[in-house]
Write a structure and sequence with these properties.
InterPro entries: PDI, PDI_thioredoxin-like_dom, Thioredoxin-like_sf, Thioredoxin_CS, Thioredoxin_domain. Belongs to the protein disulfide isomerase family. Keywords: Coiled coil, Repeat, Signal. One of its GO terms (biological process) is protein folding. The protein is of the alpha/beta class and 231 residues long. The chain folds into 3 domains: 28 residues; 115 residues, Glutaredoxin, CATH 3.40.30.10; 50 residues. Helix content is 59%, strand content 10%. Strands 1-3-2-4-5 form a 5-stranded mixed β-sheet, sandwiched between helices. Strand 2, helix 4 and strand 3 form a beta-alpha-beta unit. The protein is elongated and about 90 Å long. The termini are far apart. The relative contact order is 0.08.
């Protein structure tokens, strides 16, 4: 109550400045903004897990999630957890969002120096913070931090350490091409199934219409018993 009373004596310019500052802070949020030029260096070069929300400003679900996400960013970014909370605006970074398979908003993914995994958990602050603490705050397994690797991951890591950088690069390109090919085959199959569905639907509607032609007349005929009941 005292603060409200005191604020009445603040100069109007100062009040406007305070309000404007609050609005700008809310609009900006507390997540780190990633762009096409900073995304890969952050995800693959920061040495931290990166928790990313791909969004569109007009999206209702994105707006609903924003307060919890900003609170998470304020709590995590710059703190002791080796995690970055980040935002990507897909209305601005269209190519980046397409590259990483974003098809709806918000799409939330987490990266641990890998190609990313879809986050399937709750979207309130408590659930997000718990996920950061229990999953993302753990050290990342890599060649500089082998102690964080599982035996299986360590074996795979050391296997590829033995080959040359050129061979590793070639293998990455081969695998990525194979992934794209597999995804394309899936898309082609879906397109084929969609065409089959549409053709079957059209044929079914025509057949049902043809079969049903006598029904209209049949249902209009009333036998003697029905006529007596009506009388």
């Amino acid at each position: 109550a005292e603060r409200a009373k005191d604020s009445a004596y603040l100069p109007s310019d100062m009040l406007r400045l305070l309000v404007l500052t609050a609005i700008v802070a809310y609009a900006r949020g507390e997540a780190q903004v990633l762009t096409e030029s900073t995304f890969e260096s952050t995800v693959y070069g920061s040495g931290k897990a990166v928790f990313v929300k791909f969004y569109a400003p007009w999206c209702g679900h994105c707006k609903a999630m924003k307060p919890a996400w900003d609170q998470l960013g304020a709590a995590v970014n710059g703190g002791s957890d080796p995690v970055v909370i980040a935002d990507v605006d897909c209305t601005v970074e269209k190519d980046l969002c397409q590259k990483y398979g974003v098809k709806g908003y918000p799409t939330v993914k987490y990266y641990q120096e890998d190609d990313g995994t879809d986050y399937k958990g709750g979207r309130d602050f408590a659930a997000l913070e718990k996920f950061v603490k229990e999953t993302l705050s753990k050290p990342i397994c890599n060649s500089a931090n082998k102690a964080a690797c599982t035996p299986e991951d360590l074996a795979e890591l050391e296997k590829w350490e033995k080959v040359s950088p050129a061979e590793r690069k070639a293998e990455i390109e081969r695998i990525e091409d194979e992934v794209k090919k597999t995804e394309k085959e899936h898309e082609t199959l879906l397109e084929s199934l969609q065409k089959q569905y549409e053709a079957s639907k059209e044929a079914t509607e025509k057949k049902v219409a043809e079969i049903s032609k006598p029904l209209r007349a049949l249902k209009k005929i009333k036998d003697t018993a029905e006529l007596k009941d009506e009388m």
